[in-house]
Amino acid sequence: MPNPLQRHDTSPILELQNVHYALKSDQDTLNIINACNLSVATNESVAIIGRSGSGKSTLLALMAGLQSPTSGDITLLGKALTTLSEDQRAQVRAQQVGFIFQNFQLMPSMSALENILMPLELFQVDDAKTKALHALEQVGLAHRASHRPAELSGGEQQRVAIARAFVTHPKILFADEPTGNLDEETAQQIQALLFELNRTLNTTLILVTHDVQFAQKCDRVLRLTQGHLSQD
């Protein structure tokens, strides 16, 4: 019987093999991630659900190489992250990995356009301003290009964050509770936008959420319980 945590139809863009993550103190060891195995195919969308504090965000950080596992192997975009230095992992992420966060993480002193321009200028992309403006148009905010985050609603801020994440056309996108701070109507609009851009740009999506209905829009739904991943 096939393992629902593995897909073999196309080359995997992300693989976890027996991944553990623990926090140690003088008195105790807290096991957060236990023996996680996962294979994600290119262009697949996968949602990870679980209770608050179950380790979903930690698992996402491990997948993206933002944290290193206590043991086990993680391969992202064909690179064995556990064999790389922090700088080398950053190079793997560079233009190929996008991030969307619950709290938007926009630069408050920058306009919407400047926030989207930031990764393009960092990588010295040609026609950066034209591409940033197009990204704003894709999320319906071209008319808000000069506005700073404090002048935007929560939904508008997340649209800017989505535009920033997609503007480099990443191969894989990690989204951590992207609608967690939004009201229901706005959350549904953001969800629709996220999946629309994901399909248009053929991006692999790894989504962490507590919203089961949101999760079920993905190709697969996995549940993290006591550090273990299982098919929901």
Structure description:
31% of the residues lie in helices and 28% in strands. The strands form two sheets. The protein has a six-stranded mixed beta sheet, with helices on both faces. The protein has a four-stranded antiparallel beta sheet with strand order 2-1-4-5, with helices on one face. Helix 3 crosses helix 4 and helix 5 runs parallel beside helix 6. It is built from seven helices and ten strands. It has helices at 56-63, 86-93, 112-122, 128-138, 154-166, 184-200, 212-215, and strands at residues 12-24, 29-41, 45-49, 71-76, 79-80, 97-101, 172-176, 204-208, 220-225, 228-231. The protein is globular. A hairpin with a 2-residue loop joins strand 9 (220-225) and strand 10. With 232 residues, it is of the alpha/beta class. The model has no long low-confidence stretch (mean pLDDT 90). The longest helix is centred in the C-terminal third of the chain and has 17 residues, at 184-200.
